[in-house]
């Protein structure tokens, strides 16, 4: 019988990700409750790294509060490793991300990193992407058009609200969450939706998939490599 809570599993993988951090370098840092555990663990080796590139204002605040220097991504050519969570992970390392509305900056950092290490509890592992509402960051004037395009595909889409009004991302845009789609070809899906006018970023990470996933399970950390 497992005595691990979901929070324990997040702590476990957050700590396990430390071994992928390259000493003396800058590490890419994602966003979310699992990454928060990683950031807390990173503080224990902060003197052995140069700092971090962060994917959200929330992660930046947490990093800085723990004394970890945060670099602008424009000042860093490439990163050895990017550590981030996910809302869904499939058996090829394709991901759904953006539950925390940080998907655009997350995809940028994933693209500038040689290795993407995903950290998640085992509930995130799926056969086919699409059960978790797919986040899409959209320029406000295109929201209704994008919602209609997803409806035409057979999905149901709605703008994400916070306190009763449309959520505004760190980039000043809105999030459309899409349900009812089975994403059987993540690469083609990402390519297609990324081309729709007004779409800033779709939360399918197929072109920027994970190379490694550390899954927190009742038996410990399970490492998947793709
Ligand atoms: C934020 C993300 C997160 O990585 C994703 O939502 C998982 O978050 P958590 O670790 O809190 O479950 O994509 O935009």
Mean pLDDT: 97
CATH architecture group name of the largest domain: 3-Layer(aba) Sandwich
Major sheet attributes: 7 strands, mixed
Number of helices: 6
The main sheet orders its strands as 3-2-1-4-7-15-16
Annotation, overall tally of beta strands: 16
Q: What oligomeric state best describes the polypeptide chains here?
A: single chain
Show unreliable segments.
none
CATH class of the largest domain: Alpha Beta
Based on Cα principal axes, name the global outline.
Answer: globular
Notes on the protein architecture:
With 226 residues, the chain is of the alpha/beta class. The protein is built from 6 helices and 16 strands. It has helices at residues 6-16, 33-42, 57-65, 103-111, 143-152, 186-194; strands at 26-29, 51-54, 70-71, 79-84, 88-89, 95-96, 113-121, 134-138, 156-159, 161-162, 165-166, 174-179, 199-202, 204-205, 212-217, 220-225. The longest helix has 11 residues, at 6-16. The two termini are 30 Å apart. The mean pLDDT is 97. Residues 30-34, 84-87, 97-103, 106 line the site of ribulose-5-phosphate. Ribulose-5-phosphate binds at residues 30-34, 84-87, 97-103, 106.
